[in-house]
Amino acid sequence: MARVAVVTGGTRGIGHAISVALKDAGYKVAANYAGNDEAAAKFKAETGIPVYKWNVASFAECKEGLATVAAELGAIDVVVNNAGITRDATLHKMSAEQWGAVIDTDLTSAFNMCRSVIEGMRERAYGRIVNIASINGQKGQMGQANYSAAKAGLIGFTRALAQEGASKGITVNVIAPGYINTEMVAAVPQPVLDKIIATIPVGRLGKAEEIARAVVFLAAEDAGFITGSTLTINGGQYIAA
Ligand code: NDP
After folding, report:
1. The ligand 1 atom nearest the CA atom of 36
2. How far apart are the CA of 153 and the centre of ligand 1, in A?
3. pLDDT digits over 122-166, tens only?
4. Is residue 66 lining ligand 1, measured as CB closer than 6 Å?
5. Tens-place pLDDT, residues 7-66
6. What pLDDT, on a 0 to 100 scale, did the predictor assign at position 188?
7. Residue ranges per domain, the chain?
8. How many CA atoms lie within 13 A of 207 on its CB side?
9. Protein residue whose Cα sits closest to atom 16 of ligand 1
10. Cα(165)–Cα(19) distance, rounded to whole angstroms?
11. Residues whose CB falls within 8 Å of the CB of residue 92, separated by 6 or more in sequence, listed in order
12. Closest by alpha carbon to 35, among 49, 21, 19, 56?
């Protein structure tokens, strides 16, 4: 029977590519999104993948949304915590709202999602959790103290949960993408983008599909010995230990 995978922020950008790659690999996929109904409807029409609207920053909404997915598609085997936002500002100009929105959406969301599925995964002795962090959580980025903190937190969260899940057949890994050609990066002004590309040894932005193929790899049944890993996919821009 096909395994069930939930991808947060699964209708656009990197998440779109992850949802499609998991479907192509044989999973029953649920693509979550926040509020862009138009993009979600287009995604659903093009891919045939069902979409589920809830805010990953809300524990109650995650719990309810995941219960709906489980009722409609079956018990959840794979969670990809991909949804994320940026609210950039240097710290001396950053508001508490900018800080809170990013921490809640990019970090607390992983707690909200994993807490809601972990007991079921433990009972069934199987689970695959893949978190999407960022190069900027590894190296820090000026103007992104909130985002860097959230993404670094996601790496620590991954390492802790990997230890807790290991004896129960649950693997937990994190991917740290570099700059990927999505709307999030399109928002960066071109002169800034040109400077960024000049620091990427591969000489270009990454593609969403290049992240998606790694998610499929980590989500696979035969990836059971890979847990607690941080997979860096950044064209050589930052080579972490
Ligand atoms: P996009 O902005 O293209 O897409 C974001 C997706 O997340 C959308 O589907 C959006 O839903 C959803 N989303 C946002 N907030 C919420 C929320 N509160 N609840 C549920 N869903 C939400 O992002 P990217 O594809 O560029 O980024 C995906 C992930 O990869 C993020 O975690 C990002 O931090 C990370 N990343 C991206 C990099 C890049 O270069 N693009 C580099 C490194 C990491 P909706 O359509 O409804 O708004």
Report:
1. 47
2. 17
3. 999 999 999 999 999 999 999 999 999 999 999 999 999 999 999
4. no
5. 999 999 999 999 999 999 999 999 999 999 999 999 999 999 999 999 999 999 999 999
6. 85
7. 4-233
8. 4
9. 34
10. 24
11. none
12. 56
CA dist 170 and 207 (Å) reads: 28
How does strand 4-7 pair with strand 76-81? Answer: parallel
Q: Which two tokens stand for residue 206?
A: 């990454």
Please tell me the distance between residue 167's alpha carbon and the centre of ligand 1 in angstroms.
31
Average pLDDT of span 208-222: 98
Instruction: Please tell me the distance from the alpha carbon of residue 184 to that of residue 50, in angstroms, as a whole number.
Output: 23
Q: Which pTM value belongs to this model?
A: 0.98
Annotated active-site positions, please? 147
Q: Please state the atom number of ligand 1 nearest to the C-alpha of residue 183.
A: 3
**CA distance readout (Å), 179 to 69, 161, 234:** 31, 26, 7
| Phi, psi angles (nearest 5°) of residue 82 | -110, -30
Class at the top of the CATH hierarchy for domain 4-233? alpha beta
Partners of 52 in the β-ladder = 32
